[in-house]
Specification:
Elements lengths: L2 E2 L10 H8 L26 E6 L5 E9 L3 E10 L6 E15 L6 E3 H4 L18 E8 L9 E20 L6 E16 L2 E10 L4 E9 L6 E2 L4 E3 L7 E3 L1 E2 L1 E8 L8 E13 L4 E9 L13 E10 L5 E7 L22 E5 L19 H7 L8 E5 L4 E2 L12 E10 L21 H6 L5
Parallel strand pairs: 1-19
Antiparallel strand pairs: 2-3, 3-4, 4-5, 5-6, 5-16, 7-8, 8-9, 9-10, 10-11, 11-24, 12-14, 13-14, 15-23, 17-18, 17-19, 19-20, 20-24, 21-22
The structure holds copper (II) ion.
Copper (II) ion binds next to loops.
Length: 449
């Protein structure tokens, strides 16, 4: 059976005006009249508490939160309601499921979630300074390291709405529009050993969910080694703090579209070896993953979870993309003469005022691009370094890790793909842009056929 998810008309909003109107219009801001219908899911948070927030786009997130002695912050029954629409079920529950920390010396391995846990006494009571939003309390049993004691009501969850930067910018002729966006951050802090881990979920006004693990606190005082297995964090070439890995795995139990069945697809795009008149031809393929499977990331690969029985207004099955935030390596088309695999994730050269363009630098007269710069500079000692980053957590301690350690983050993003037929907050005058623009629209924009 195919269900069609019915969205009512998208609420057209005028850029910054809408932001101003909606910023304080969260469901918990009961005194200010909201321009949007209530879109909070009907939740039964038996083991937890309900949370909801309407963001700049007019979309409303709602869910339950609780604290598990091992997994720490657990979010469940996560729903999103696009502006003017009913809540859509997205996730049944999400939490970190293990954090393994092996040291490069081979002499220490911890499995922090199963051995220590992020909840119980490990979860810290938040201070005013750590949270610009609301500090929310839950009953936290004094569980930790096998000890059981009282249950205390403590403020452990930070709920804060932060500016998310530019939402969109359109300078088109008829309906220019610009707006900023908001993120709703839910965070807890857990101290395990010498480290303090921030569990953070970032719910975007665009329907995205950022899943983050931040680490601060202090380096282990007992894990110092030699230069082959660590790095010097004290004066001179001494005090090598051991390198180590933070291997985190989150469990995401999906409930996309509600009770219906879900499927998984892997997307890949690969060069065909053929060239078009302007650029190489790539073939995009979607491979169903019908059975339980493991998969590895390669360039241009991503996965999505679909609810095939729930369609958006374009008739597309709603889905969420799993974005590992690995950058796609590439070789510039104009560098193919060096070989189609000559691309780089990062390159280093000495600064040269006539090496400014990564490709097409010939007009400046000292090499066509980065690969040329690297070749030409091969005999040089790097000194006045320029990084050419085409961007991809193994923690090699830095001097800045003392003390407390500068925050380091790892994570991924869950991105709606075809959840709605258009962006959540279509500004006035952009409603018609859904598919190939009409000739009429092109005329209005001053384009000629
Ligand atoms: Cu570390």
């Amino acid at each position: 059976m195919r269900r069609r998810v019915q969205w009512t008309a998208v609420v057209a909003m005028g850029g910054m005006l809408a932001l101003a109107a909606c910023t304080d219009a969260g469901p918990d801001a009961a005194s200010s009249p909201s321009p949007h219908p209530s879109a909070v899911a009907d939740l039964d948070c038996a083991d937890g508490q309900e949370l909801a927030k309407t963001l700049s786009s007019g979309a409303t997130w709602s869910m339950c939160w609780s604290v598990d002695p091992d997994f720490g912050l657990v979010l469940s029954d996560v729903h999103i309601a696009p502006p003017g629409a009913e809540p859509i079920s997205v996730i049944s529950s999400i939490a970190i499921s293990q954090l393994e920390v092996p040291y490069d010396t081979g002499e220490r391995l911890t499995s922090d979630i199963s051995e220590s846990g992020f909840g119980g006494t490990k979860m810290k009571t938040l201070e005013k300074e750590s949270c610009i939003g609301d500090r929310l309390a839950a009953d936290i049993p004094d569980v930790g390291d096998g000890t059981y004691g009282k249950t205390r009501n403590r403020e452990v969850l930070c709920s804060e709405v932060v500016d998310g930067g530019l939402a969109y910018h359109s300078s088109e002729l008829v309906s220019p529009a610009v707006a900023r966006t908001e993120n709703w951050q839910l965070s807890t802090v857990s101290r395990v050993g010498w480290y303090e881990y921030v569990t953070q979920y970032v719910f975007g006004a665009d329907g995205s969910i950022g899943v983050r693990l931040g680490a601060t606190g202090d380096l282990s005082p007992f894990d110092y080694t030699d230069e082959d297995h660590g790095s010097s964090v004290g004066e001179g070439d001494h005090d090598h703090a051991a390198s180590h890995s933070h291997n985190a795995v989150w469990r995401v139990h999906w409930a996309l579209g509600g009770d219906g069945s879900m499927t998984v697809e892997q997307y890949d795009a690969a060069p065909t070896g053929e060239d078009g008149p302007q650029s190489p031809v790539l073939q995009g393929t979607t491979t169903p993953l019908p059975n339980p499977a493991t998969a590895e990331w390669v360039d241009r690969r991503w996965w999505r979870v679909l609810a095939p029985g729930a369609l958006n207004d374009d008739g597309h099955p709603i889905s969420y993309q799993i974005d590992l935030e690995r950058s796609d390596s590439f070789t510039f088309v104009e560098d193919h003469e060096h070989g189609a695999d000559a691309g780089y994730d990062v390159a280093f050269t000495n600064a040269d005022d006539c090496q400014l363009y990564a490709t097409r630098n010939a007009k400046l007269g000292c090499g066509d691009g980065v690969l040329d710069f690297v070749q030409r500079g091969a005999g040089q000692t790097l000194d006045d370094v320029v990084s050419w980053v085409a961007v991809g957590f193994h923690h090699v301690p830095r001097d800045e890790d003392q003390s407390p350690m500068e925050m380091h983050w790892q994570g991924f993003t869950l991105l709606p793909r075809d959840l709605t037929a258009q962006r959540f907050d279509v500004p006035e005058g952009h409603e018609e842009l859904n598919g190939v623009p009409s000739d009429e629209w092109l005329d209005e924009q001053g384009y000629e056929d």
